[in-house]
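Running this now, will post back.
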Amino acid sequence: MNIDIDNIESLGQLKRSGWESISVKEEIRQNLIQKLRKDEPLFPDILGYEHTVIPQLQHALLSKHDIILLGLRGQAKTRMLRMMVNFLDEFMPIIKDSEINDDPFNPVSKYARDRVEEEGDSTPIEWIHRSERYGEKLATPDTTVADLIGDLDPIKAATQKRTLADENVINFGLIPRTNRGVFAINELPDLQPRIQVSLLNIMQERDIQIRGFDVRIPLDVMMIFSANPEDYTNRGNIITPLKDRIDSQIMTHYPKNIKIGMDITSQEAWSARNGEVHVSVPEIVKEIIEQTAIEARNSEYIDQKSGVSARLTITAMEQLISSAERRAIVNGETKTTARITDVYNIVPALTGKLELVYEGEQEGAINVAKHLIGKAIKKRFIEHFPDPQDEKKQEDGNKYQAILDWFADGNDLELSDKMSNKEYKRTLNRVKGLADFVKKNAPYTDERESLVLMDLVVEALHQHSMLGKEDMENMRSYSDMLGSMLGSVDDFDDFDDI
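Update: finished.
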């Protein structure tokens, strides 16, 4: 309904405008229907849920349900909860200065009832934006009933010279203050069971009772929650009566395929720096970043009940770009391309986001992170290039033989973190057969990307146990696998001679 809210400032004017009072869930339902008819985006920028979570959310909203989103960390649960406010009307009238957004036609607080009784159609009203109708609380063990529901305020009683039996001395909590709106509780299991009990009346009878007051205050609020699966943490559980009162439980999930994951990372990562250096990231490097998260979600070293957040790939991409950016700045360059060195520089973005099981702790967080990156490189490489393991079995010749022969002749390849573009090109072109191999298998790439692919081929041959590799502080050194093994034996012999 189109109403000129600037000219409606009293209860009488509101009555004459034709505005109708409806419940918040009916309001959300009607607005959702309008958006569906107009084919408007319901949850913009939420990718990968188009055929799973979002349809289920639509069904729940059309059913006027309270909702819980259940899923592991980094699955956009909080973002989706906050988007629920977009299904409310842009503006809503309340009794002016009401603490709990009293409906002018159906006031529930003593303040609002008294004011309407005294002033009638002259009762002033105000319009609040939908953003003011959303409330949120992160559940923590120290959350109290007073925080959520409310309590008596002795200071207010003393200041206003009222008794503690007067309704006007109630200090309303967060949920009543979001009356006629949407209230979200994140990480619901972290609420103490006795605090969860306080939500039961809101969920079923739609009212609250504070302390010893005989008065029950009816509320009109949509409750939405988020939680990790109950077996994810020992911090707490959702009590059965409360779980029973939540109408729809919707399971979220990680991206179903690598393309969706890459789209999410591209959308969320801070890639466009607008700085002195332009960093381009080859598509295969983006794939490796995303594949690293996929490998982590299937790794025996990672606690799968904890999950691997989508934030891992976002921060990893930002670290990758920063690594390339720093190198270009040091070398006085304005353009550069992300290299395999930069891929390994994302380790700090991984270690803080991986919950390791005992075996992972034994290996160490850094080693686990490098192991995951290596597996990702190995996996994505064979999607674009011949599988080195298959090539070993070919009777008509190994496509990688020229490259391997160069290393077998006693040559080493050293790639440092600080190499300029020119030095990087010169060093890689030393490897006989490497440029020709990339040109043949990736003919449409530009020179900068071809160099990165040459770098990738060498690293992939190491991951397939066909080249040796030594990691130093700021350098990777590749050599023939047999020579590397013999070198290790010589080291032991030298040790014995001491």
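The chain has a mean pLDDT of 91. More later if anyone needs it.
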